[in-house]
Amino acid sequence: MNTQSVFTIQKKGIFLHRLVYIIFLLQRLLRQVLQKDVSEQTTVLVSVLVVIFFLLEEFSNIRDYFNNIKYVRALRYAECLISSLMFGMLQLNESSGVSLIGLSLLFMVDFFLTMEIADKDKVTTYSVMVGVPLVVIIILKMSISLDYRWLFLFFDVLMIFVILFFEGYLFVDYIGEKDEKIFSQKREFQEIVEKNENILSMQNKLKKTNEQLNVQRVNLQNANRQIQIANKEMVAQAEILHYISMSFDVSKISNQITDSIMYVKQLSFCGVYIKENVYLNKHASYVIKTTIGQLHQKIKESLPDIYDIMIEDDVMELALHDDETSKVPFLQNVNINSVYIKVLGTDEETYGLFIIGDSRKYLFRDNMSFYDAIIAQYDIAIHNAKIYGEMQQMARKDGLTGINNRIYFNQLFKEHLTLVEKEDGCMSVALFDIDKFKSVNDTYGHLAGDEVIKCIASVAEQCIEKYDGFVCRYGGEEFVAALPNKKLEIAQPIIEELFEEICSKVVKYNEYEIPISVSIGLTSYPEICKNTDELLKRADWCMYYAKEHGRHQINVDDGSVERV
User: Smaller CB count within 10 Å for the chain: N or C?
Assistant: First the structure.
């Protein structure tokens, strides 16, 4: 029994002591009242001793003396001696033996509980310490009084002492066996704990290993995902490079690039805007792909303004996230949280705008290398298309006027005729010639004649292309205008508009003002001309008919005109 257990038991026994003291005092008081032979002096003495015991224990408890093992042991032994003395002095004089024996046994047990009772040698010592004083007192009383009752009391005490002594030994054996079992169980428990600790240690190691494996698996999955994305990006870039090397069609290249970006990055929208006259394109070019239908038109309408604002503010690129996306007008009330806008070209020469966006947050804060590579490739495509366009311009355009030359016109004319025949369509053709052009050259000089030709070419190109037609300088002072998918009744007002605009012009050359007049022949397939191969021929006949019949007029083919 450890010291702390002794303290705890002694403190818990205080209540029992109080109860015993109260019972003992009540018994003494009742005996004092009911029995006349009871000595008042003895009752007072016994009561005082019991009260002293009570006060000592209360004082010790309040002052925490019960936490001092030596003090507790001395207190209990003193109580044993005093109670034994009381028993010896009063046993034969008054009938209070049972209560006195109970009191003595109480103190003896408490005294034993302050000792290391698991040791048998100490049990003998403690038994002698509490038993011998009582036996000595009885022997002394018996030798003095020679009363046989003391002899009986001696044997009573001896029997109690023997019982206590041997029962103490049995109790010690019992405690020893219990301690051995407890120790054995404790050892087994410790072994189990050690095994459990080993198991827990193994489990923790396995858990850590699994966590590391999970982290490695996640890292591997992320790496595989990054590799897959990188492969997609590389394939997309390779396809774009291949397409750029095979084509100079900017619209198709733009479609290829936006499709690739939407496929690889899974964005909500991607758009490309090219301003006019970049690669000889007369109109701005738009290619917009989006998974949000309502955005397509809004993006198209907003891109030129965004481009102008960024150029004015000298901002070449812009990344917006979360609430910042509300700065883009067409994204209000749309679930788009990341937007990237890039001005295409260089600081010295810009040509358009690249814009992408998605609902995912912070998508364009880093890892922009794919987009940078795509934009760089697009710059190459635009540069190549520009060079190709300039080369085509040289090959297809007339050197003096800048409109289509005869070679390119023949190519366009053939392509459109094939389409007209295939789709059972129609086409109107006008051929016109400058009236008295030789006189202009003779009067004002050939340079003045060139200015007249350029003026007519410019007016004709603007007027005819407005109605989806095309014109060319057919040779010298002759021009051809073709209007695909236009019947005669539609083509005639267009040609009349052309005639009025040309004849209203006056070419200023040096100090001269040169008036312009043309003669025009107009025919149509299949209303008048039944064979597409005869369109140009019949237009030529009509033109010469107009020149032969007064010039400065339009002659519309009615089927009766023949070679002049």
Answer: C
